[in-house]
From TrEMBL:
Lineage: Bacteria, Bacillati, Bacillota, Bacilli, Bacillales
Matching PROSITE patterns: PROKAR_LIPOPROTEIN
Organism: Neobacillus vireti LMG 21834
YqgU-like 6-bladed beta-propeller domain ranges (all copies): 90-354
SUPFAM superfamilies on file: DPP6 N-terminal domain-like (SSF82171)
Pfam families: YqgU
Name of the molecule in the record: YqgU-like 6-bladed beta-propeller domain-containing protein
Length: 374
């Protein structure tokens, strides 16, 4: 059993807050190579044509779960101790009940290809129930796990697999691989709870030294089949993967008040990077929310307008859009924003935004719409 230090306990709280607000906050690669010329369909409507706000048919709105398609989103409602999962059609304004559970839903995560929905519900304070359904509500697998908190990572190359990190109340943790085809969970020996998939069988994680907390850690890749490990970089603050690509956040050695975002292809060749002001916290840096869209090869992120301390910072954030394919200068979408979770639509035309994804941004019109009536 692994145990986390106080510093990493704080990191967990931030990470789980992101999960509850976004749940992926990040788009992940699809498990299959798409048919040639097959691309996500751009919405024909603009923000002014979306049927908003949502009229909730039953219960009280809790949060958005993410995108099912370009014009369909998933949202959760609560009614006493039960929870509902609805599909909402932005162009028609109609809600469709997908799934109903007798227990409060903690979180939902939609698989990278939008084929499955993972529902994390909580029958009690020390039990987590994992239910994976298809978009019609048919259950594929259900697992009950003794736990205080759970974190998940879909395998974007094989969506029948999900990495599950189980936390106890003292923040010790275990990691298992949930396999829908085999209908079982297999425990894994991995020293860190927050993991990303590099390919179908390789994972990556930051190998923090719990006895000597630092701002940075080595980025390690492990082959789950062979057990082989490789250190990719020695000093990384944060990282993520998407569609065969790797992004790292490190320090600018020439100006340590700036963070550097670097993007690497599958051969670990850097093809794009940029710097932005960074905000310090008690034990680390604040990395603002971001997302990536594979269709347009675009990266979007909040940027503080100046460096400083996160606790006292009040100057707002700029929402910046980067075209990684063209390598051009970023586009300012909006200024004076709050740093809250964001999630691209499949075509990259819109963003879900907010701690509960309660807002939607039309990126072309640069306008924010409320999904729920205040």
């Amino acid at each position: 059993m692994n145990r986390l230090s106080y510093g990493k306990f704080i990191f967990i709280l931030v990470f789980l807050t992101l999960l509850l607000g976004a749940c992926t906050s990040k788009e992940q690669p699809k498990p299959k190579i798409p048919v040639k010329n097959e691309q996500p369909r751009s919405t024909l409507s603009v923000g002014s044509e979306w049927k908003l706000p949502i009229s909730v048919p039953e219960g009280e709105f809790d949060r958005l779960g993410g995108w099912l398609s370009e014009d369909e989103i998933v949202y959760i409602t609560n009614l006493e101790q039960t929870s509902n999962v609805f599909r909402y059609h932005l162009q028609t304004g109609k809600s469709e009940l997908i799934y109903k559970t007798e227990h409060p839903i903690v979180n939902v995560q939609i698989s990278p290809s939008k084929k499955y929905i993972l529902i994390h519900s909580s029958p009690s304070s020390y039990e987590g129930l994992i239910t994976i359904i298809d978009t019609k509500g048919t259950e594929k697998i259900r697992e009950s796990i003794p736990s205080y908190e759970l974190a998940f990572e879909w395998n974007p190359y094989n969506e029948e697999q999900v990495l599950v990190s189980t936390f106890n109340e003292d923040w010790t943790f275990q990691i298992a691989l949930l396999d829908m085809n085999k209908l079982k969970m297999t425990e894994l020996s991995i020293p860190q709870p927050f993991i990303r998939w590099m390919d179908e069988r390789k994972i990556a994680f930051l190998d923090w030294d719990e006895d000597n907390p630092t701002l940075f850690a080595p980025l390690i890749v492990r082959d789950l089949e062979k057990g082989f490990e490789q250190t990719l970089f020695n000093q990384v603050l944060q990282f993520t993967t998407f569609h065969g690509k790797l992004m790292t956040v490190t320090v600018n050695e020439q100006d340590r008040t700036n963070a550097v975002y670097s993007f690497f292809d599958k051969d670990l060749k850097e093809y794009f990077s940029f710097s932005q002001p960074q905000l310090t916290k008690f034990s680390d840096w604040l990395v603002p929310f971001y997302d990536y869209n594979e269709h347009k090869k675009q990266f979007i992120s909040f940027m503080p307008v100046k460096s400083g301390e996160a606790d006292s910072y009040s100057a707002g954030f700029e929402l910046m859009l980067y075209n990684l394919k063209k390598g051009s200068h970023p586009t300012l979408i909006m200024a004076g924003m709050e740093n809250e979770p964001i999630s691209f639509s499949p075509s990259g035309e819109a963003l879900l935004y907010g701690n509960r994804f309660e807002k939607i941004i039309d990126l072309n019109a640069k306008k924010i719409y409320e999904l729920i009536k205040k």
